[in-house]
Amino acid sequence: MPTFTGEEAQEYDNRITRLVPGYELLHQLTNAQLQTTLSDDAHILVIGAGTGKEVLALAQINPKWQFTAQDTSSDMLDIAKQRFAKQGIDSRVTIECSPVDKVKAKADAVLCLLVMHFVEDNGDKKQILKSIKTNLKKGANLYIADLMRPETTFERESQLNTCAQLGLTEAGKTQMGHNLEREFYPLDRMRFSELLNECGFGIPKLYFKALGFSGYVV
Ligand SMILES: C[S@@+](CC[C@H](N)C(=O)[O-])C[C@H]1O[C@@H](n2cnc3c(N)ncnc32)[C@H](O)[C@@H]1O
């Protein structure tokens, strides 16, 4: 899996829009649903908050929302922290550089975008989802987006071709093709639903699909 440290963290924002077709739209659609469903006193937990993308945008949408930004990479969170200070929202954000099971929040919504596909389905995915569930208020939603198992034989290659159109170099495309095969742990829809159910969630509803990447609200 990528390490999300050092140069990888520094380069993250430049690269991610070339690696995930529809990256901006995924965030826009997720945020729109929070804007529709949450009140002014909401607390939002962002798992795998990275360089702060979700928090920065949501903090602008509603100036009263509070956040917990969790990630296991201190390098990614350091970048996020600087951005929160620059945007003047640091007092609204609690930063948690720790595993998910150490987080203690009672959230009105949890976001987990582009994180769980790096976690193995050997009990680790389940542990994280269970921890997320304990941090959600009753009836509150989890927004989760991941790379899924391909549904056609031509989906992955089409995804890589889209990445090339988005500016990924030939070498980057080869590397991404390698990573997609060996460094991600994508689930098919059946297993994804089953796992969520095992962790106490309801039926996931698809709200975003861009070739291999799917976003669900549950
Ligand atoms: C592809 S980035 C996504 C960042 C952000 N959510 C976004 O949409 O731009 C994945 C992030 O997940 C973090 N991550 C990976 N494994 C994690 C884990 N087990 N718990 C929490 N964060 C994790 C990485 O450090 C990285 O910041």
Write a compact overview of the structure shown.
The protein is α/β, with parallel strands linked by helices. The chain has a single domain (6-151, 185-217), classed as Rossmann fold.
Poorly predicted sequence stretches spanning 5 or more consecutive residues: none
Question: Architecture, according to CATH?
Answer: 3-Layer(aba) Sandwich
Shape, principal axes of CA atoms? globular
- Tally of structural domains: 1
- DSSP strand tally: 7
Instruction: Going across the biggest sheet, name each strand in turn.
Output: 3-2-1-4-5-7-6
Task: Please tell me the overall pLDDT.
Answer: 96
Beta-strand content estimate: 15-25%
CATH topology: Rossmann fold
- CATH H level: which superfamily? Vaccinia Virus protein VP39
User: H/E element string?
Assistant: HHEHEHEEHEHHHEE
Q: For this structure, what is the CATH class?
A: Alpha Beta
Helix content: 40-55%
Report on the biggest sheet.
Answer: 7 strands, mixed
Helix tally? Answer: 8
Q: What are the distinct ligands in this entry?
A: S-adenosylmethionine
Keywords: Transferase
Pfam families: Methyltransf_12
EC number: 2.1.3.-
Enzyme class: transferase
